[in-house]
Amino acid sequence: MVGRRVGRLVRVLIGLVAVGAACGCDPLATGDDRPSTATTITVPTSAPMPSPSEIVVPAPPELPPVPAAGDAGVEAGSPASAGPRFDAGAIDNQSIKKALFERVRSGRASIDEIRMLKVACSQLGDRSCRDMASAALQKKLGE
After folding, report:
1. Whether the predicted model's global pTM rises above the 0.70 cut
2. Is the separation of the CB atoms in 67 and 80 below 8 Å?
3. What pLDDT score does 81 carry?
4. What is the pLDDT of residue 107?
5. Taking a C-beta distance cutoff of 8 angstroms, is the pair 116, 104 a contact?
6. Is the C-alpha dihedral spanning 34, 35, 40, 43 positive or negative?
7. 92: closest CA among 119, 126, 131?
8. Do residues 76 and 70 lie in contact, with contact meaning Cβ atoms separated by under 8 Å?
9. What angle do CA 138, 110, 114 make, to 5 degrees?
């Protein structure tokens, strides 16, 4: 708490010294030590902030429609007709099992891969695959 107060006081004093350097006077001086000539510092001001009701947000630009295959000017083999490159249905429990089964069985799979295979096999109802993954997981965690 004391450290914060000291830090704040130091920042205020540094600011006062900077103001004094800018105007050519000593802001910490008192009494007759102050210079007789005063320097005026002008600070540029900006326009007042508009109220929230005055702020106008422009509408987003309209995007052109995406051409479909068979439309005029779009060829059947063009990228516009190819559709999305990522097929969300390509990743399912069967593909996970196919990709990880051999790695787990050979002992080269990581703990996360073994857990993923175990869940996929459980979802598919393949008890022998799930039991093999559980045994591999216990072996890997025991190492």
Report:
1. no
2. yes
3. 47
4. 92
5. no
6. negative
7. 119
8. yes
9. 55
